[in-house]
Every structure is written in C-alpha cells, then in structure tokens.
Amino acid sequence: MPDPTVIRRPSDPAIPTPGDALAAALRDRNLNEVLTEIRDRVPGIFAALSRQIHLDELLAASGSVGEVTIDKVLLGDASVDNIRVNNTTATLHAGSAYLEGVSVNLELQFKVDWWYDIGIYDDSGTWDLGSMWIGLNVGNITIPSLSDIKMNIPTVTVSNVRAQMPPLTNLKLGSSSFTGLKVKGTALPVQGFVLNGLGLGALSLNSMSIPDVQSEQVRIDRFKPTQQIVLPGATVSGVDIPSTSVPGVASAAFGMDAVSQERSLSANAGVFGIKIRILPIAHMHINAMRMQNLALSARVGSVAIENVRVPIDVQGIGLQKLGLSQVAANNINL
Hints:
Elements: H1 18-28, H2 31-41, E1 49-75, E2 77-92, E3 96-117, E4 122-143, E5 149-164, E6 168-195, E7 204-223, E8 229-250, E9 254-259, E10 263-268, E11 272-310, E12 312-333
Antiparallel strand pairs: 1-6, 1-12, 2-5, 2-11, 3-4, 3-11, 7-12, 8-11, 9-11, 10-11
C-alpha cells in the first residue's frame, strides 16, 4: 500500500482509486450499466432528502385577483353612539274623532268659614262638611272635524342605540387589484419536499426575485378582526315623508279631572258671620278616544348617525386567479 506521507510528482505513476473502476465501466459498458454501477457503489449520494424552505420575508410590489368571493360575513350587534333628528315638522290633517263611553262624576266639596266677635272674646275657624257626588253617564261625544295640527320638533337625540345586524352571504366582489403585499415567516411546504437522487447538507440564499407568480385559487376559511369596525357616521338632509293615510286610531281608557272656580255664599250678623264655599270638581272617565280618516305628513331637516361600531367575522374568502408581480423573497434557508 503506498505511503500517504510521500508527496508524488505529476510524472509519478498514478495511485489506483475507486474512480478508476468507474472510468473503466464508462469505457466498457453502456449507460444503464453505468447507472447500476453508481447506484450499487455510491448509495448514500441518492438518499432521499426532506426539507422545508423558510422565507423570512416575501414581498410583492403589485398583484391582481380575478374574482373575490366571500361565503359569509357575520355582523355582531351594532352600537351607535348617537342618532340626532333635527328640525322635524309634522302635520296631522283633518279627520273626525269621538270620545267613547264618557262618564262624569261631579264632586261638590263644601266648607264653612265662621267667625264671631262679642267684644270681650272673638274666634274663627273652618268646618269641612265633606263632599257630595253626582254621577252622570254621558255616553259618546262626537267631534265632527279636526283642524290641521302642526308640530315642530327642533331636535331629538337618541343615545346608545343597539341593533341586530343580519349576516351577509354569498358576496361576489368581482376582480380587484392590490399593491404592497408583504408576507413574513413563511415555511414552504409545510410537510417538506423530497429530492430523490440529490443530497444537500444545507442551502442559503440571501435573496430571490421572481418576475411573476400565478395562483389559480387561494382560500381563507375564516378572517375575524379583533377590533370592531367603526363607521364614522353620516348625515342625511331633507327627508320628506309623504302623506300617509291612517284609517283609524283608538287610545286606551283614560281619565281627567276638571276643577271649576269656587263658589261661595256669605252671611253677616254683626257679631257673627259665616261663609259657605262650594268647589265643583268634575271627574271624567273615557273608555277610548277614536280618531278616523287621518292623514299624517312630515319633513325631517337632517338625520345624523354618529360612530357605528360593528364586530365582524368573515368566513370563506376565496380568491380566484391570483397574480403577483415583482415578487422578492429574502433570507431563504434550506
């Protein structure tokens, strides 16, 4: 066996190596025999290799999407800070009305004021003699016509309004374009890839540029932002509400009291006097007030909606025919 410490010159005879046998095989055999020889002699070179490509950063200057589809957008309960209705004018046009089942209880309250003065002694006071009731069943009271009633409401503000928003389904947004796509920390593919017939310990690229990337379909099962969507609000001016016919309106039972001016009767006997006071009070009870053949029209100066907050949950985002241009991948490690 040759001494490995001896330095040989180019003119010295060559030391036989395993490559000599491979060279002889190349001279004497066909290609299939050579490949068989290589596979049998150097099996480690063709060992299977499973790797992942790690992309620290993926940039795309611009891109386009052929079609964007969203299966469902779930909107939570919307909250509105304020709704202001300004300068509302309403007119209740003429109609007819009547009071149904009117009954009146007339109450007469009696009180007596007295006094006397006999020179050496005097005194005065009031006696409450109680009440006397008189019941009257009036029945229905018809009001033949009503004049137009005009109402002006300067401002109505409703705060902390909540509303249930129905979901949006099967949205098709059509084609779109975008710029400035950035993806960080990407591993491709997730399960790694296998190269048969090539073995590499490691591969590192500082950067890689790809002119164009075309993807037939991209899908995102769910996209749910942590923050609510805040709509700044809007103002709608000059809202006209056309005349609306109202066939009939009936109120619930109600009552009212009418207090008349006090009446009195006095008597004076010099050293003694009395005054009888009578206070009439009418207690009215009405089973219902019915209004017929009414027409209502209104005009709203402006409606302002401030700060609408809606939680959103997007499900099933599909991107068809995704195209990326000027794609740059940085710090690739294999």
